[in-house]
Write a structure and sequence with these properties.
- The chain is of the alpha+beta class.
- It folds into two domains: 11-42; 46-136, no CATH class.
- The protein is built from three helices and six strands; from the N terminus they run H-E-E-E-E-E-H-H-E.
- The chain has helices at 16-43, 93-112, 121-131; strands at residues 45-52, 60-62, 66-73, 76-81, 86-90, 134-136.
- The protein has a four-stranded antiparallel β-sheet with strand order 1-3-4-5.
- Strand 3 (66-73) and strand 4 (76-81) form a beta hairpin.
- The longest helix is centred in the N-terminal third of the chain and has 28 residues, at 16-43.
- It is elongated.
- It starts with 15 loop residues before the first helix and ends with a strand.
Amino acid sequence: MTTEPKSPPPPAALGHNDAALHDQVGRLSSQLTELREEVERLSERSVYSTAITTLASPDYELLRDIPITVEEDGDETSVSWFEIGLMGVDDTPDGALISFENRLLRLFDDLNAMADDKLGPLPSRWKRTLATVIRHA
């Protein structure tokens, strides 16, 4: 035979110290609930490294693998390449990869359309990096 746990008496029926303790237990209970929710959210998050080894577009050739980080967080996935700070985001891993590749090729073409002396230090670095990774087929 099991008995139900007794609810604590309302704070008005408690002494001053008991009321303070009751409030503290209430706050701790709320914090515990928040922590459980955060643990659940984090358990849905997945981060891993991989590489792009081919490009979908026949107009470009990949000269070497591109190291990427894939981050799945609930209903959103991002694919990023730290070296040039580029990211593609979508609600599926495939969609995020397509978004990333589209942005990568657009950046490659945009930078190659500009004269080197018109680029700042960071875009110049991106252009040099991309030249070691991609070329037109």
